[in-house]
Amino acid sequence: MNSRFKRLLYLICGLTDFAAFVVIFAVSRGLAEGKAESWYLGVVGAGLSFSAGIGSILGGWLAHRFDGRVVFVSGAVAIGVSIAACALGDPTSPWFLPGYWLLGIGLGCLYPPLISWLNQGVDAQANRRGVSRTLILYCVSWNLGMMCGQLTAGSLFSFGAHWTYAAAFLVSMLNLILALTAVRRVVPLSAVSINKTPEEHEAVELAAAFKRLSWIANLGGMFGGSMVIHLLPDLAVTIGIAAADHGKLLASWRAVIIATYLVMHCSAFWHYRLSTSLASQVLAAVGLIVIARAESAVTLLIGLTLLGQLVGYNYFSGLFYSTAGSSHERRALAAGIHEATLAVGMAIGTIVGGVLGTLVNQRVPYLLAAAVLLVMIVAQSIAWWSWVRSLRHAIPVTADESMALAQEKST
Length: 411
Fold this sequence. Notes:
Elements: H1 3-33, H2 38-65, H3 68-88, H4 96-118, H5 128-156, H6 161-183, H7 198-230, H8 232-239, H9 243-265, H10 274-292, H11 297-324, H12 331-359, H13 364-387, H14 399-410
Helix pairs in contact: 1-3, 1-4, 1-5, 1-6, 2-3, 2-4, 2-7, 2-12, 3-4, 3-6, 4-12, 5-6, 5-9, 5-11, 7-11, 7-12, 7-13, 9-11, 10-11, 10-13, 11-12, 12-13
C-alpha cells in the first residue's frame, strides 16, 4: 500500500479522536460541574458507548458487504453534525443527547473500513512485523489525538464550553476534507487476493481463537475503562481536582497506554499467550481499587497507570489477532466487532457504574469493575481450554524465527 495513503489515514485517526474527545470532555465535565447525578452521567456515557458499538457493527458489516468508502465518509460527516448539535444545543434540550450520541455512530462507521485499509493486501502470518508496525502507528496516532484533545479541552473549558466545541468543529471539518481525499485512493477489496497454505490456514485458526478471547477481555477491560472517560469527572470534582489538572490526568493515562503499545510492538513475548493477558488484567484490577480509594491527583495517577496498561494491551492485541485471524475480505467486519465489544463493555460499565455512584457513592463503581475483571479472567481461562489448547501446535512463526530455530537445532 502507498505509504502516503497510510500517513493520510494516520492523520485522520489523530484528528478524529482529537475532535471526539474534546466534545466528550466538554459534555462530561459540564454535566459534572452542573451537579448532574452519577446515574445521569452513566446514562449519557452509556448512550455514547452503545451508539459507538452499533455504529461499529453496522460500519464493519456495510464495509464488508458493500462499499467501505461510503461508510467511511458517512462516519466523518456524522461526527461533524454531532459536534454542531452539541455546540448549538442545551444539555436540557431533548435533542441534546441524541445529537451527542450521534458522535458514537460516526466513530463506529469511520474506523472499521479505515483499519481494514491499513493492512489491505498484507499477509498477516508471513509479515507479522509489518502488521505490528502498521498497528502501532495507527494506535499512537489516535491516542495522540485523544491526548491532545483532552489537554486542549481541559485548557479551553475554563474560558467557556463554546470554545471547546468550536475547536472540535473546525478540526472535524478539516477531517472531512481529508476523508474525501482518502477515499479516492482506496483500492477496492475485490481486487486483493492472498493464497494460503494448509499450515497458514491452521495458524489463522489459532489467531481466530485468540481473536475471540480478546473480545471477552475487551468486555471486562472497558467495563472499568469506561468509568475513567465518563464517570471520573464526578470523582474528580468531589476530590477537588481542577479541570486543567483533570485533563492532565487523562493525558497521562493516554501516555501510559501509548507506552504499552510501544512495548508490545517491540516484543513478541505476549503473542498467543493467555498468561500475559491475565497478568495485565490482574494489575488493572489493582489499579481500579487504587482509584476507588484515591484522595489526591497523585493517587489517581497511580491507579490510572495500572489500569491504562490493560487498556493498551487489550486494544493492541485485539487488533493484532483480528487482523491475523481474519481473511482479508472480513477484516473490516472483524475490526467492527473488536470495536463493538469495547463499546459494549463501556456502555454496560458506564450505566451500571453511574447507578451505583448515585445509590451508594462515586467510589463503589471502581470496586465493582475490579470484581468484573476477575470474573472475566475465569471466563477467558475456560474459553482458552476449549478453543486454544488443541491448537497450540499451530502457533505461527515468522521467517526470522524459523531461521533462529534452525540455527539453534544445528548447534
